[in-house]
Amino acid sequence: MTAPASATIIPFPRSPQGTPTDPQERLRQALAGLEAALTIQREAVADWRYALGNLRDSVRGLGSSLQSYNEQLCRLGERVNALNAESKELEAWADEVINTK
Predict the structure, then answer these.
(1) What is the DSSP letter of 12?
(2) Predicted pLDDT at 55
(3) pLDDT per position in the chain (101 positions), as tens?
(4) What is the Cα–Cα distance from 71 to 55, expressed in whole angstroms?
(5) Alpha carbon distance 22, 29 (integer Å)
(6) DSSP character for 51?
(7) What 3-state DSSP class applies to 93?
């Protein structure tokens, strides 16, 4: 038993009418097409590098913001610890006052 064909064969495109038969002319046209493709690729790479530069700057800014946020949290933690220590001192004082009466 053979499985039914599930693929469609697409014929290789023929050269369009008006394609030069002279090998030198064909080579010249191929090189011109290659040069055009390289120009487009150069522009795309330049755009990509520009976008990478913007991304780098954004990431640096984000890093600076996170560093600042971390410093603020550290300062807040120090203040909370100081208030916690003070509240424990007040609690101990209050316990002494209550126990001495």
Answers:
(1) P
(2) 97
(3) 566 667 788 787 776 676 777 899 989 999 999 999 999 999 999 999 999 999 999 999 999 999 999 999 999 999 999 999 999 999 999 999 998 87
(4) 24
(5) 11
(6) H
(7) helix
pTM equals 0.53
The answer to whether the CB of 26 falls within 8 A of the CB of 19 is: yes
List of residues 6+ apart from 29 with CB closer than 8 A: 20
- C-alpha dihedral, 24 to 32 to 12 to 20, nearest 10°: -40
**Kind plus residue range of the DSSP H or E element containing 11:** none
CA distance 38 to 95: 83
Place of tokens 């209550």: 98
What's the pLDDT score for residue 11?
81
Residue position matching structure tokens 């509240």: 87
Locate 64 and state its tokens: 């600076």
Gyration radius from the chain CA atoms? 38
